[in-house]
Amino acid sequence: MASSSVDVKMLHKKYIEERDKRLHNGNRDFIDPIGYFPDFDRDPWAIERITRDAITEEVDVVMTGAGLAAELAAAHLHDAGVTNIRFIDEAGDFGGVWYWNRYPGIRCDIESYIYLPLLEEVGTMPREKYSSGKEILEHARAIARHYDFYSKAIFQTKITGATWDEASDRWHITTNRGDVIKTRFMIGTSGYLHRPKFPNVPGIMDFRGRIFHPSRWDFSYTGGDSDGDLVKLKGKRVGLIGTGATGIQIMPHLAKYAYRTYLFQRTPAAVDVRNNRPTDVAWFKSQIPGWHVERMDNFHAAVSGEPIERDLVDDCWTRAAGRLFKSTAGGVNSNDPADAIEALQRYDYELMQSLRDRVDKVVKDRKTADSLKAWYNLFCKRPLYSDDYIECFNEPSVRLIDTDGRGVERFTKTGIVANGQHYDLDCVIMASGFQVGAYEPKTATYPIRGRTGQTLADKWAGGVRSVHGLWTHGFPNFQVVGTILQAGVSFNYMWLARQHAIQAAAMISRALREDVASIEVTQDAEDRWAQTMQSKAQDRTHFEEECTPGYFNNEGNSSSPTLFMQTYGGGAFEYFDILRRWRESDYQNDTVVKRAAQSRKSALEPA
Ligand code: N01
C-alpha cells in the first residue's frame, strides 16, 4: 500500500459529503425490463428454436434452472445414486448467469481454482487465475457432459407454475411448452442475479437508438464476441451507464472500438489491480486430491479473518477482506476495543487512498483523474479489480461524464441529458445491475404454491422465513440451493452453493432410500431459526449508514434490513456446521416426515 498517513477527520467528512450527494440525488428507482424491452423476451444465444413434443412424466428431482448451482446439486445427487432428475431452464444450455452474460471482457473476479465447481471430478484445468466467462461456460458444458446431464435437461422452456399436490406428495410443474412434470422433490436453483434492472430514468422508453443490458449483449450491433473485437462500433457514439463489476469490464472494449464512448458516472468505482496470469501447469498438476475444497476453505478463512497457516489464493480479496470484512461485518465492532476499530478504519482509509493514488499515477488528465476517485469504505460496494479500466481513460475516444452523484437526468429520442447537457448517442449500454436478493419473491417469474395453496411470493412478501435459508414451512420437499438470505454467505458463491448442494443431495437421497413421501419443516423450526438469526445478527447499521448507496445497503434506504444483515451472522463455517449436524441427525424436532404408505393411502381417499 502506497500511502502511510491519512487525514482521518478530513476523509470522514468527505465520505459523508459524497454519500449525502448520492442519498438525496440520483434516480434510484428501477423498472423491470422484462415486458418493456423486446430483448428480454428473446434469447440472443439461441442458435435455433428447439422443437419438441410436450412432456408428461414423473421424476425424483427437478432443478428449476440449469446454472452452476443446479449442476452442483445434480452432481451431488448423482454421487448419492439419484439420477432420475430433470433440469428445466429458459436458456438454451447450461451455465446460468454465464449463459446469459457474454458481454465483452466478461471475467470472474474470484480466482478460477476456487470458483469453478467440480474441477477435480471433471478434470478441468482453468487457463488463467481468473477465468473468462467463455471458459466458465465451457466448463458448465463439460460438467454436463461428464455427468450425462444433457439427456436430463429441457431448455428454452419456461416454468409457468409449480404446485404441491398433497394427495400424491408430488410437485406438479407446468411449462410454456405444455409439459406437466411431477416430481417428488424440487430444488430451487434459479440463482439471484437473473433479473436485470433498468433505472427508471425519464424518457428511457423514448430513446430511438440501440439500448440493451449486458446480459443480453447485441453482438450483431457491436460486432465481436466476449473477447472484444467490437469492430461494428467504429464511427458510433456509445453511452455506458454503470460502474459496477460489469461496467468496468465492458468499458475498455468500448474505449478501444467506438468513435466516442461516454461513461455516465454516478459513483466512481474503487478499482484495485487484478494481476491475472496464465495457470502454472506444473503447479496445477502437482495438486494432490482434495486440494480444490481445501483451497476454497482456505480462501473463505482468509477473507473472514480466520487464522490460517498460509494464504493459498493470495490476491487482493484475501489481503484486504481478511482485515476489513470481519470488522465491517460487525465482528470487531461488537467485541474489540475502540482503538482496534479505529486502526481498522485507518487501514481502510489508507487502502482507499492507495487506490486514489493509483488513479493519479495512471490517468493523464487531472480533472478526469479526480472524478474517478472513490470516496467510501472499500466494503460499501463489492470490491473491483481490473488491469485496464482506469487505464482506458487515457484513450482519446473516451469522455467521462461525471454527474457528481446525480446520475443521468433523462433520455431523449437521440441521446441522454446529464449535467444539463445533451449527448447524441447511437447506442446505450445499461450496466445497471440486477435485482440482487432472494430466490423469491423479488425475482420469481412463476408462482410456487405450497401445501395450503399459498404462493412462496406471498409467504415471503414481508421477508424470507425459512430454516437455514433452504427449507420453508408449508412447502414440503422443496429446498433452495445457492440462496443468500437467512443463509451463511461467502464472496465465493460457488463454495456456498456446494454446501447447499451437499445438503440437498443428503436429504433427498436419504428420503428416497427410506421411502419418505414428504419432509416439511415445522413452523416452530422456522421461528427458532429466525431467533438464531437474530441472536447472531451482526450490527452493520453504523457502517452501512455511512456508505455510499448501493445494493449492499438497500441503496441507502435504512428502513429495512440490508443484504448482509439478513445473512447468518455467525459466519459461513459455523453455518455449514449447522447444516452438517442437521443432515447427520434425524431432524425430527424440526420436520414433519410422512412415510410413503401414508401418502398412498391419502391419495386414494376421496377429496
Ligand atoms: O451491477 P451493480 P453489476 N444513473 O449493481 C449504476 C456480479 N458480477 O452488473 O454506483 C447512473 O454492481 C450504479 O451507480 P451507483 C457481482 O456480484 C460478478 O455491475 O449506484 N448510474 C452502479 O455503478 C456484482 O456485484 C462478476 O451510483 C446508474 C451500476 O449502475 C453484481 O453482479 C462480474 C443508474 C450497477 O452496479 C452486479 O454487478 C460482473 C443511474 N440512474 C458482475 N442506475 C464476477 O466477476 C444504476 N447505475 C463474479
State the low-pLDDT regions, or none. Answer: 329-334, 600-607
CATH architecture of the largest domain: 3-Layer(bba) Sandwich
CA-atom Rg in angstroms: 24 Å
Attached small molecules = 3-acetylpyridine adenine dinucleotide
Q: How many domains, as an integer?
A: 2
Number of strands: 22
Strand content: 15-25%
CATH top level assignment of the largest domain: Alpha Beta
Oligomer: single chain
Amino-to-carboxy terminus distance: 71 Å
Number of continuous helical runs: 20
The CATH H-level homologous superfamily of the largest domain: FAD/NAD(P)-binding domain
Helix share bin: 25-40%
What global shape is seen?
A: globular
Structural class: alpha/beta
Any overview of this molecule?
With 607 residues, the protein is of the alpha/beta class. Helices cover 34% and strands 15% of the residues. Helix 10 (291-303) packs across helix 11. The chain is globular. It binds 3-acetylpyridine adenine dinucleotide. Residues 22, 27, 108-110, 193, 199, 201, 241-247, 264, 266-267, 382, 407-408, 431-434, 549-551 line the site of 3-acetylpyridine adenine dinucleotide (N01).
